[in-house]
Amino acid sequence: MKIRAEYIWIDGTEPTREVRSKTKIMDKGDEPGIWGFDGSSTNQATGDNSDVVLNPVFQCPDPIRGGDDILVLCETLLTADMSPHPTNTRARAVAAMEKYGDQEPWFGLEQEYTLLDPITGWPAGFPAGGFPAPQGPYYCGVGAVKIHGRDLIEEHTKACMDAGLLISGTNAEVMPGQWEFQIGPADTVTVGDHLWMARYLLFRLAEDHLVEVSIEAKPMKGDWNGAGMHTNFSTKAMREAYEPIVAGCEALGAEGIPELHLKEYGVGIEDRLTGAHETQRFDQFSYGVSDRGASIRIPWQVAQEGKGYLEDRRPNANADPYSVAAVMTETVCGAAAAS
Questions:
Q1: Structural domain boundaries of the chain?
Q2: What pTM was computed for the model?
Q3: pLDDT for position 278
Q4: 48-64 per-residue burial string, b: 16 or more CB within 10 A, e: under 16
């Protein structure tokens, strides 16, 4: 019996990485092996040396095709020596997990995105060439005037669940046409695997709804919220005591570290982190309890219970989850290991 395996990988597009995929027909029961693709068409090779290797790292049921078909997430390797391709950011996350896995880092990523009309480029819920009522009633709203695209969101949520992904919630966001799903808790590598796969399912299902999905950091200029990927992070020590949480915040604000992190947090940081719309300015660093205007928020229940996690509010919606998880693990776990 033959099945379809959808091989999925992350390309080399700059400044925002994109998902690519192609279908392999294989015998049911066989393990998906290495494959390849034309890297000169994905910004990952030149035409005179175009082959790039696809190495399967995670697979799950294909909830769109159903049956025994599968989705296969791959990392990219160089043909010369099978080492990680320069665009293979997963390799850095694996290295961070191998070095600091004893601290049991956990992540919960909040992926915001905006539904767009593919012809006009205008967000769902915006009148053609115009603007809806100001922000206020849309966040977690209910009703046809406030909410647009719920049918796609429900389908995507069910698809993630059927695929066995660690999706933990969804909600409508502050700007009309803007939504969010959450992935986690999961470790430094797994959270990236599951979020990229969830992105693939969202983009793929949006095709059927004739909707474009944007993860641009500031899809609408002016007095509208941007789109982020708020990153909830903890270690075993943080989940047991409050002092390691404060130490983690201090490590993230140490000299030179904020700038290092912002380089990994996606394109359009300056447009989104303005100090308005529930953000701290990109050139300032702060942390505080229940403060959505801080770089790092410590949830109120964490402060009350004296243990838990911190939320880095700076990553953009278009950030690479592997890079975000890797640099967070390196900074916070590295500081803890050195103390």
A1: 2-88, 96-338
A2: 0.97
A3: 85
A4: eebebbbbbebbbbbbb
Alpha-carbon separation of residue 59 from 25, 87, 194, 203 (angstroms)? 15, 21, 10, 18
Quote the DSSP letter at residue 66: -
Amino acid at 5: A
Spatial distance between the Cα atoms of 33 and 48, rounded to a whole number of angstroms = 25
pLDDT-derived band at 270 (thresholds 50, 70, 90) equals very high
Place of tokens 């915006």: 126
- What is residue 330's DSSP assignment? I
pLDDT (0 to 100) of residue 129: 80
Provide the CATH topology of domain 96-338: Creatine Kinase; Chain A, domain 2 (3.30.590)
Beta bridge partners of 296: 287, 312
Chain-wide mean pLDDT for the chain? 96
Please write the tens of the pLDDT for every residue from 186-220.
Answer: 999 999 999 999 999 999 999 999 999 999 999 99
Could you tell me the sign of the dihedral formed by the alpha carbons of 220, 153, 174, 311, in that order? Answer: negative
pLDDT of residue 147 exceeding 90, the answer is yes
Strand, helix or coil for residue 59: strand
User: What mean pLDDT comes out for the span 281-299?
Assistant: 95
SS3 243: helix
According to DSSP, the residues that pair with 181 across neighbouring strands are 111, 170
For domain 2-88, the CATH class is alpha beta
Q: What is the pLDDT of residues 83-105, one digit of tens each?
A: 999 999 999 999 999 999 999 99
| DSSP category for residue 39 | G
The residue to which tokens 């296969």 are assigned: 72
CB 105 within 8 A of CB 235: yes
Separation CA 336–CA 251 (nearest Å): 9
* Burial classification of residue 212, based on how many CB atoms lie within 10 Å of its CB (0-12 exposed, 13-18 middle, 19 or more buried): middle
